[in-house]
Amino acid sequence: MASTISVPTRFSERVVLTNVLLIGGILSSVLYVIMNIVVAMQYEGYNSVTQTISELSAIDAPTRPMWVWLGVVYTLLITAFGWGIIKSSAHNRLLRIAGVLMVVYGIVGIFWPLAPMHQRDVLAAGGGTISDTMHLVMAMVSSLFMTVAMGFGAAAFAGRFRIYSIVTIMMLLLFAVLTSVDAPNVEKNLPTPFLGIIERVMISVFLLWVVVLAFILLNKTGPVSVKDTRQKTVS
Fold first, then answer.
1. Residue 69's CB: how many other CB atoms inside 10 A?
2. What is the model's pTM?
3. What are the structural domain ranges in the chain?
4. Which of 108, 114, 159, 223 is most buried, taking the most CB atoms under 10 A from its CB?
5. Residues near 208 by beta carbon (within 8 Å), at least 6 away in sequence
6. 125-144, pLDDT tens digit by residue?
7. H-helix segments, the chain
8. Separation of alpha carbons 82 and 97, rounded Å
């Protein structure tokens, strides 16, 4: 008696893997938002309105261990997303470059725990070290890869997503400038009203862009359906 079973094709397996990687981008943004809320709640006296995100992982900060471990998960998810972009790019060279840059952005994140900043009072007392300098360098390098990846992502598509990406990049640059204005006051332990909000808005526009791109690419690849399998008859 003959029976029919479904054997997944290579195409369907590739689509499933690509979708999983792209979903990693959505999860990375959700995780980062949760990290900011949950970790900040564990730091008594910390103010998300006036203090930077980096202060949650500063040397001797009570929340540093938690932030570092969650940061490793974020790094893995955003790197996976970059790989998902590459696998979704097909013959779109610009999109492939955007994916490569996103992967590099994720890999750079691996080194963040090695370059923590000191807390404000330590910096104000002259206790800064090479670690603080490297922290600033890491921030600039990460921002560069982030922005350029978004630029290639914008160029890879026409229509509304390109316009949205351009507006997002402009917002990112604007809030980066606003952040740099108050940043010197951190090492002087001076008031930095709204610095925390400004920095979080800057990061949020990138996190949202990742989610939007992920949904666009997920819609492009589509879910695996019955058509993605071949029927094999077994006697």
1. 11
2. 0.88
3. 42-222
4. 108
5. 29, 168
6. 999 999 999 999 999 999 99
7. 10-41, 64-88, 93-109, 120-124, 130-156, 160-187, 195-221
8. 10
